[in-house]
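User: Predict the full complex structure for these chains.
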Amino acid sequence: MNYKIVIRVLGFLLLFLSASMLLPIPFSLYYGDSDYIALLISAGISFLFGSIAFIGFQEKRDMRPKEGFAIVTFGWIVLSAFGSLPFLLSGTIPSVTDAFFETMSGFSTTGSTILTDIEILPHGILFWRSLTHWIGGMGIIVLSIAILPFLGVGGMQLFKAEVPGPIADKLKPRVTETAKILWGVYLIFTIAETILLMLGGMTLFDALTHTFGTMATGGFSTKNGSVGSFNSAYIDYVIIVFMIIAGTNFSLHYSLFRGKFKAFHKNQEFRFFIFLIIAGTFVIGIDTYMNDYSTIAEAVRKTLFQVVAIITTTGYGTADYEQWAVSSQVILFMLMFIGGCAGSTGGGMKVMRVFVLFKFIYSEIVRLLHPQAVVRVRIGSYSIDRKVMTNIAGFFVAVTLLSAFGTLALTFMGIDLVTSLGCVAASINNIGPGLNLVGPTDNYAFLPDAAKWLLAFLMIIGRLEVFTVIILFSPSYWHK
Amino acid sequence: MNYKIVIRVLGFLLLFLSASMLLPIPFSLYYGDSDYIALLISAGISFLFGSIAFIGFQEKRDMRPKEGFAIVTFGWIVLSAFGSLPFLLSGTIPSVTDAFFETMSGFSTTGSTILTDIEILPHGILFWRSLTHWIGGMGIIVLSIAILPFLGVGGMQLFKAEVPGPIADKLKPRVTETAKILWGVYLIFTIAETILLMLGGMTLFDALTHTFGTMATGGFSTKNGSVGSFNSAYIDYVIIVFMIIAGTNFSLHYSLFRGKFKAFHKNQEFRFFIFLIIAGTFVIGIDTYMNDYSTIAEAVRKTLFQVVAIITTTGYGTADYEQWAVSSQVILFMLMFIGGCAGSTGGGMKVMRVFVLFKFIYSEIVRLLHPQAVVRVRIGSYSIDRKVMTNIAGFFVAVTLLSAFGTLALTFMGIDLVTSLGCVAASINNIGPGLNLVGPTDNYAFLPDAAKWLLAFLMIIGRLEVFTVIILFSPSYWHK
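Assistant: Here is the predicted structure of the two-chain assembly.
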């Protein structure tokens, strides 16, 4: 392991973090809050540690995958640790556990909160909280890919470890270009949604913070009642559209910008994603129309919003789905594990993996019927390599086992089964709200500290596609 | 598809069933009950249909895997249909749904019951109910392998489809011999347990019925309070030992009989199985000792019994584990899915598969670290073929998805989440008792008919190792 590279890159990330901590300050000043002081001190501390690490550890050698894994995982942990300083120093979240949980929830684009009253927080802190989503969303690391070459470090292996999902379409041969392109797409949608939300009557502050939460599929709101507080069909539908956009593979958006309109139609993952949204809304909607809402329009709006918020792993709310039928909640629970498309900011297992798993099961049946035949799993014209196939199956097994053990660990802390299941699903899939005591109208404040650390760990495991993190627990990673 | 062979074999199975229906009659007469009439009529009906099918459809051609799958699945269904006649004709279970559920629960060695009061049933019927376990346990089909050659049909492909677990150790080159040997081992243990239980004070009737339930890892008792009714430490420990025996690969027992004592020690699956039992008992036992029982001896006895009853998928009870901590229940729930060893009468995913899955996850990590290396998953000196590996992963994915969809379907019928989870886990893993409303002191009577049919379907899916059944739903099975 080349520790110098790792520390140097972590230092660079801290410098980036330090700069981003200055962004909320104008809002703090505009609204006459005093939290800009905490932000300034936090930026200073991050700058200090960042400079020491960045300047003190010069390294020109190439980075290997080993260092890539360490940088991705420790990068997220270090950013969450330093990113929690504004909460601690402003006194808005005095507990270290709570502050770390909230910040990891932000950077991992989960959106679970330990805050019981969001609206009393000063504006600079609220903006910082949402900004952690936006930074995490596209991935500080992915963003850094455009800058890593500047550090004398090749980043392809990092990209491989970071880009969500099994298939990283190579948009441009050079990674730097790819990262810049994805970042540009992300920025364009961010600006577009902010403007559209302001046209719906939101202030710049609310529009920006909710856009951050949408585009990162995060879910932090500045309102106690989440998006439902605005009580506007227009705002609901704008956010629905942008949640779907954020949950879609960004290379598809790039194709669109380049005029390739057929890309969406041809993409089997995207079609399956849209199918799941429509099917989920239809099945749940029938029930909510009959039992919860008086008009079809309202049932569609509330149900569609929730289905999209869950499958994209955003976690915004306009309705308390715990009032819906148990079967509807189970569907949402299943959608939590499916998640967004590969190459999106969404969490979960990714639509592509689930799609491939269904094809995989069918290929096993065909194999039983024709033991001598060579059975291939195809997505469109693309034949899935057997290694990728076993990797996807392994991913499914790992997520299931981690979820089971996570649930077990929580029940050992005296938490009931359904709440434990909900906590784990909402964390490992980076959603936010779960079931029972951590439902859409609740928060995570009441959990014991050990539970909060465990869930924060599940958030990073889920966000970094499981193996990136658990590889660090394998003895052979640290040997030689 | 060669329908003639299928129908002829099903006919043979009915003739076998007809003969076995005569076995409970002595008990009916001895106890002065009148249920022998229903048994005689049922045997007659089965004999009639069996003879027509067996004599009417002559076929000398070889059987292919296709027919094997059909015979296994339809064999189980036909036997459950005709096997429910004694319940219907005696009036002890008047509903067709309930009678089919109970019989499928018997033949699949699940042990779930729709009976609210077991002890009021006449002795012939009770004996028949337990006998369905014993017949199902080793597998009517496995038993038939010794007789299939007599029908002019080669049975190797059937054996492949039927023997539980991924690895079928070839004991003897000829399948017929293998079946005879396994049947002999099964019979020896059955006689031994019956004698040991009678030495503990049981009547021949109780000893036989409870032995049937043990050796088949079924779980039907003749008492409302299950094994707990006998309130005897000796009986508890005898049944614990024989549940472990029944949950162990029968080819290991055969090795033992042939003097190869090291076979158990060398077998990694068996060692992992024993480790899971000890670890589960230890972790749950600490909690039950502190909260539920006054002495260590009682805590060990009750906890060990329940852990063994669950992991072997027997489902007998001496304690109501729903009074234990939620974390203990989650451990039991996880053990439900692990199940017994491959080649045992136990259900679940099988210890071997779970063991291989853990190694598989680790091999994926090694692959990430050394992308160029050829990574093999080894069990002892045996290197697991990649096809077997993906098959095991596919099995895990299929069981998880079926469990999720099964749970969803039950919640649509208005059943709560935890009960639904418990029903599905207890059925697909062939255990019996589940969680909440279907806990160890409850029964399945209250469920709507649709739920009972669904659970009966999950029982056969689980018992026949999933793919044997779902292959029949694939269009390519029926084509050509």
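Chain A has a mean pLDDT of 87.
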